[in-house]
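Can anyone check this?
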Amino acid sequence: MQTLAVQVQDNYIQDFMAYVNNHSENITISKDVNLELDPYFYERQQQLHQDLEDVESGKAEMISHDDLWNNINIHLKSMKT
């Protein structure tokens, strides 16, 4: 079995569902909660894995939490002046 993402235009959804119902022995429909919450979930997940691999391999550097907030605070102070 293969899993596909299918986009159906609003005005065609009833015809599409009728087709699915007529072929229900071969088709299973389920909602992907990840895509309901974030339409770009899988792209973001892939990018996150790539970023982690880059950090682990030394290709990219991750700054510490304290350094991040220090940089933000410096930036905010510079905006006040």
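Reply from J.R.: I decoded it. The radius of gyration is 23 Å.
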